[in-house]
Request: fold
Amino acid sequence: SPASVLNNKLVGSCFIEGDFLSCYKEFLWVRCFHLFIVIHLPLTSCSACCFQKNPAYKKIFLKHLILQGEIPWDDKEFRMYFLSGAAFWTAVTYYFFLRDGGREVTWKDFVNGYLAKGVVDRLEVVNKRYVKVIFSPGKTPVDGQYVWFNIGSVDTFERNLETAQLELGIEGENRLPVVYSTESDGSFLLSMLPTVLIIGFLLFMLRRGPAGAGRPGRGMGGLFSVGETTAKVLRDEIDVKFKDVAGCEEAKLEIMEFVNFLKNPKQYQDLGAKIPKGAILTGPPGTGKTLLAKATAGEANVPFITVNGSEFLEMFVGVGPARVRDLFVLARKNAPCILFIDEIDAVGRKRGRGNFGGQSEQENTLNQLLVEMDGFNTATNVVVLAGTNRPDILDPALMRPGRFDRQIYIGPPDIKGRASIFKVHLRPLKLDADLDKETLARKMAALTPGFSGADIANVCNEAALIAARHLSDAITQKHFEQAIERVIGGLEKKTQVLQPEEKKTVAYHEAGHAVAGWYLEHADPLLKVSIIPRGKGLGYAQYLPKEQYLYTKEQLLDRMCMTLGGRVAEEIFFGRITTGAQDDLKKVTQSAYAQIVQFGMNEKVGQVSFDLPRQGEMVLEKPYSEATARLIDTEVRNLISTAYQRTQQLLMEKKPEVEKVALRLLEKEVLDKNDMVELLGQRPFAEKSTYEEFVEGTGGMDEDTTLPEGLKDWNKERGSEKEESTDEQVARQIKGGMPF
Reply:
């Protein structure tokens, strides 16, 4: 608001900080706005008030702007603002303040007070709107102002003047001469003001809008800079380091080697090796691709340029290729450097699909990117990194060696990786004094199979939030267990009221899952089962999946049977089925299709593998015939029926155990593994349940983080060390009297 600018403290702070340009811009625009709203405000009130109340500000102003010469006259933008402001204030000052406005009188006052007394020399009709009264020499009023009065029309004024002079007996040569003139009174300026304000506002918005965010030092913004890249050059602004990245040691080594290429190229050139052009980071969401790039920016000691793939595409044709060209111009100016393109699938999709015969803007942008990465002008030390979780849709020309020489896959971390990630995220947390971070990290890693780095960060944050919610002094292991349940199953809904019949159905449903998994060898061990609603589900069961990568038909069948245990228990005990098994049936169907279509685990369909469509992906054609599709559907139904019948047989044999677990669930609502052992006895199969057992035979308890000999000083230049060693050698030769 204008009041904030007029506040003497704000103006003074602008002067103290020496930021004259920004202070002047803000003052200029707000002061103009204030002038047109409160036109009577004196022009110099702001500075006068500021300097009168705070004389120190005047001294500071003179010191900074005059004595030290800190007025940025060389700044083109400053000169533009200064000259435009000076011209505007000159015009405003003249029209509204410096010009003598005279004194208005009525027609009657003019006739009786001036015309009748004979002090008028002549009359001047200005713009046919008002009349100036020019006094005879020596008869000017004391205040020195001329007087004027409005007229309706010139004809009426002339008739009234003639009548008045006749009544006063003024005839012949004594009659007043009337002169007609035209003057600029500022009305044109005021009439143009709305147009000027609208144009100024539009220009201001264009400069401030998304299309106007040109890079500093690149001239005007707005539409004139729409072809400029929006990339950011980072040097020391990133606080993330490689010590903050865990669970992907192999990928870290690859990235370190790229930085070492730029810092110590002679190490590789002496052996005839060429510096790789780039690498693409792929993997599921949340595994640390962008975090690894941030760590590279934080430790590379070379310029790091980052841009998002979607920033190349705009509403204007030709902007994408122009921004790609400008991006690589920027990169070559900062070479050696690293260029990171995040979510490159936004611009790197395969060409020739869905364009209906015409080249799309995305294709033109991709073509320009291909040329810049491996064309005729690529002999520069610019390493291109990119990140995506959809490498399958990228254009093959983009993925070939010479553009992206390496594809670095960052998958979900294994149990050692998860333990390392937990250690990173446990550092800033205030843990209970009885908790050891090393032990806690390993235990949490065993409880979170399949979790990505982002999931683990979420678990640690949720544990801290839960502890704060209960006003705990520190975070305990119970808080971490509750956080894992929160992330897996959703928010616990203790206030959701179930009808007694519904609650009983949910209890038997969850008991069916628990008992089926307890007596199936390849099913996942049970950790906890609950009938308290969580998320979208009315019940919740937590299992401890085995840390394995290969599955047999028998193992997959046992998992299907455990998943169907809830639906089978409903049918056995109530003689009816409910909608509560919808998610279970979805998982079973996906598993059955995967076994038959992808894994070749069906004799009739054969040893073939077809890609299943992704969720929400439109399938225009299938890679197999209609007959094969019908066969696949038939075999899927047969497989699910087999699993269902096997589960029925198992739960009929264990019917008393199911009822025992269900009744205890209705009583306690939550059962853990100890309760299951008490009700059913020990599980009849050996199971791994601790971190130490999981990593047995893997060569160590923790991730191997040792660096190869050539990467010990991966982000340091070795030239200075060689020079020092040479100097030391010369010094030794001189000291020993040896000729050289």
